[in-house]
């Protein structure tokens, strides 16, 4: 499934992919967290990454955003080689990430969090417009002046998603966006992801299968640092190997 | 009328205006109420309050733990002393007192921040650099150590440093009152400038990086650059403080680079309130007044007394004076004019900027 085919795209994506990773490997000492992953994502595509704990999903995200430099392999964002680039440089190319453990500015208000994210190289008027729009979009206007450090986990997740959206990225990575959210919040998150996907490409890491069903089209399954299978959501969730790795039986 | 009081921007603006007003009252009131001795003493307070501002900015807002801020104080003081002896007119020396420490901070900061030195080691390195400068300047006794016509003088330092003068009139140095206006006026000006920096987009990013460096990076800011620029700004402020310090006594010696200088300024910030600009200034005045009072008695060793004061603050008022006073004041205001649902003003304040 992960053969180095030219990316024809699932669902008629353009010929040149948005993200193209080839042979990406990450070793920590003797442990290989990611082993020779080939991964292609088309423009405006929504992809879900699933896999058991320690499968290498978050490590792969950290490589995509420059927080880790891969031991081997190359990653291209459109025509730009971003292998080993600094995180801020990759962010400027249009990659935004909501990390697994929320990274927010705890000592700042919700509004300030979004303002700082929106304001890079934009006029003050434009920044304010983005801030207001984002706060409204995520229903955060009511708590805009609260300190983020005082908010509940689910709300902090939303604030982080707001900062990611406010930076107006072209590719959005969400690492467990539904974790710690109430049932209702999960539904809102799924609706939001579908809405974002009308104009933006997303990669979503999640464990919550009902949530995956709500949003997913194509699913990539990671196991032991490799891509186990990559297919439509129904095919993947019906796949025996996928069930086995989730139940702890290692395939092959 | 209490609605705006509980909103953060209004509170911040009110605090700024109150501080500015107080600063101006002290600036113009002190020469009318104090005798010459008192005025000279307060000039020293103003210089050290400026030094406190420098530490308060870099530590409290940029989150960079500089343990050797005295390096920049000393560089500023020596840059002024050496250049004013050579040039005569004090205009360029004042600018050099700001520029030399900033340049030094640019080089030192480049290696620290771009070299990805961790926070703890930044403390160690800045401390070490200040000690090295102390030893270096200490070893310059003898007439062979001179820059132009200025002898560095080793441990004895440089005496009889010409005082500030109005630009273009090097033969008419300012008197004590003139130096007071220069020092206190500069303090007010630098306070206003730092507030402006913090209110600007640059300042917000600096504070955001203090809060979460990873997030700042992931939205496209390069923390190394912002920390470097903040470090340089703080060095410039410390340098100007050094210039005022040299003007205050007309004398400078290597002790400005000393460990006790670096330690004292950290105490100013802790006592006054980390994460505020008013706090470090207030802390400087209080601690200096205390040191003077301790020096005029012989019951208790003054360093021991200072240590006790610091311990007391860390144990009892760990936030520092200004945040505590602010919270109390706000509570009083809310009690006097109670409103249904007084928002979360006080709760927000408790954590506001205090880290």
Supply the key terms.
heterodimer; A: 252 residues; 6-stranded mixed β-sheet; 4-stranded antiparallel β-sheet; 9 helices; 34% helix; disordered N terminus; B: 355 residues; mainly alpha; 2 strands; 1% strand; membrane (chain B); Urea ABC transporter (chain B); transmembrane (chain B)
Compact description:
The complex is a heterodimer of chains A (252) and B (355). Chain A is built from nine helices and ten strands.
Fold topology:
The complex is a heterodimer of chains A (252) and B (355).
Chain A: E1 19-28, E2 31-41, E3 46-50, H1 57-64, E4 72-77, E5 80-81, H2 87-92, E6 95-98, H3 110-118, H4 124-137, H5 153-166, E7 171-175, H6 183-196, E8 201-205, H7 209-215, E9 218-223, E10 226-232, H8 233-238, H9 240-246
Parallel strand pairs in A: 3-8, 3-9, 6-7, 7-8
Antiparallel strand pairs in A: 1-2, 1-4, 4-5, 9-10
Helix pairs in contact in A: 3-4, 3-5, 4-5
Chain B: H1 8-33, H2 36-61, H3 70-87, H4 91-114, H5 119-138, E1 146-147, E2 150-151, H6 176-199, H7 201-211, H8 213-218, H9 223-249, H10 259-272, H11 278-295, H12 302-316, H13 321-336, H14 345-351
Antiparallel strand pairs in B: 1-2
Low-confidence stretches of chain A are 1-14
Structural Rg of chain A: 18 Å
What is the residue-averaged pLDDT of chain B?
89
The termini of chain A sit apart by 15 Å
- What is the percentage of strand-forming residues of chain B? under 5%
Give the ordered list of helices and strands of chain B.
Answer: HHHHHEEHHHHHHHHH
> DSSP strand (E) fraction of chain A?
15-25%
Residues in helix, % of chain A: 25-40%
* Poorly predicted tracts of residues of chain B: 1-6, 340-355
Q: Which structural category fits the helices and strands of chain A?
A: alpha/beta
Largest sheet descriptor of chain A: 6 strands, mixed
The number of domains of chain B is 1
Shape of chain A: globular
| Main beta sheet of chain B | 2 strands, antiparallel
Oligomer: heterodimer
- How many helices of chain B? 14
Helix count of chain A, per DSSP? Answer: 9
Give the helix/strand class of chain B.
mainly alpha
Shape of chain B: globular
Please provide the count of β strands of chain B.
2
